[in-house]
Amino acid sequence: MISVALSDLVHGFEVALQPHNILACFIGVFVGNLVGVLPGMGVMATISILLPLTFVLPPVASILMLAGIYYGAQYGGAICSILLNLPCHPPHAVTCLDGYPLTLQGRGGAALGITMLGAFIGASFGILQMIVFSPLIVSIALRFGPAEVCALMVLGLLAGSTLARGSPLKGVAMTLFGIVLSCVGTDMTDGTERFTLGFHELGDGIEIVALALGFFGVAEFLNSANRVRKIGNGRLRLKFSEMRPSRDDLKRSLPAICRGTLIGSLCSLIPGTGPTIASFISYSVEKRVSKTPERFGRGAIEGVASPEASTHSSVQGDFIPTMSLGIPGDSVMALILAALLIQGITPGPLLISEHPDVFWGLIASFWVGNILLVALNVPMIGLWVRLLSIPYSYLYPSALLFVCIGVYSASNNMFQVEVTLVLGLVGLFLMWLGFHPAPMLLGFVLGPRVEENFRRAMIISNGDLRTFIDQPISATLVALSVVLIAVQIWVRLRARRSRPIAAATAAIRHAESLAEN
User: Fold this and answer.
1) In 3D, which of 133, 442, 141, 370 has the Cα closest to residue 265?
2) Which site from 28, 56, 78, 97 is most exposed, i.e. has the minimal number of CB atoms within 10 Å?
3) Residues 6+ apart with CB under 8 A from 264
4) pLDDT at 1
5) Does residue 131 carry a pLDDT above 50?
6) Which of 350, 340, 345, 338 is nearest to 444 (CA)?
7) pTM to 2 decimals?
8) Gap between the Cα atoms of 353 and 360, Å rounded
9) What is the pLDDT of residues 354-369, one digit of tens each?
10) DSSP 3-state assignment of 208?
């Protein structure tokens, strides 16, 4: 098995090292690095803007570019967090706790050096994890019938919605909203129009590009355009010698990197967790195992090494369920899954055998991309920091222009541009109410597959719902879904019970302090 995997990996490097694929990978990691540095320009918005570009690119090159944007943004996000105390993206918020104090102590360069070391080790482990686990998962997934696939999709939807940030109930509501939006258009079974509201232009459904650009482009831009201020003065300089960590830094950081890598790899196997949760868990674990926890928050190098390794390990591992089972682990993976579907490639158990160039070329490109990122970041950190001075009065209108061009080029239809604007306004309103759009995209992508497999299961079983608990695999997946819902309900009830106790304790302490004074 190892020899087969090595031969497939060699084939992957032959694909990834082709000139046009190297160029696509370089463009992806460069744009991702740039997006990671600039606050407000999220990965989702960037991939959504560039999604129409995949129509004219070969399948392998387009996926390499989008994947490079995803993991390339994690490098850029660490630069802002450490040097400017600015968490441009959620996974790097915890990096600010010790990264910026190190910068104030004049050791920002060492923190960046450790970050790049941890990122490369974490990413490499995530790649090896994908090589080992993906064929194993595929061998199990080939035993899945319609009932098992439907149950697995439902579990993925529940995990993605209830484990997303914010209220689990709001996450479930957004997932259901995404499923409803996926039903807009013509029913493939009987040819009737559903949820078109009298607009015949919606007979073909809502374009995934319009949906993504509306919720993650227009809505995000409108939400943050008046909030983001000009940051940085462009005067920061770092020499290469300052980025070399000392022996003591390496001694403290290497065990932390190993622990963070393992935590990130485990979180990546759970749909809906993502790099943000992985980074916070790794930081809390590192603080617990430390003999000097009081150092954390004041410039502990381990507080930078472990979360960054965890983030990159999780980002690479997120491709495992997406490519092997067709279940995106988060909203970015849902967009990459949509890009594969646009190319006529269906992610799932047959992807490795039917499209080995895509699968193994992607794996090989991860190593190529991470090497390119290390080479890019060392000499260009000063440039990335100077880019923070770009006025957002120029940045956002330019981005909105590309949004309109991207939507129109996807369908050559101005109606879809209007749909994007409406969805953007709806998304902005939902964001003001505290509804995060990521679960909605998950529901939109997986909704049709749940419906299709549910119908097949009902046809095979003559409408008997017991088909979902008759087979051990589907019964286990249904049980996990029930457990997940029960755990979320228990957590919510426990939180409600603890609030009055915490409030009473705080009131007593406040009264005691007043009495002492």
Assistant:
1) 133
2) 56
3) 122, 126, 275, 278, 279, 282, 309, 310, 311, 312, 313, 314, 315, 317
4) 53
5) yes
6) 338
7) 0.64
8) 10
9) 888 888 888 888 888 8
10) helix
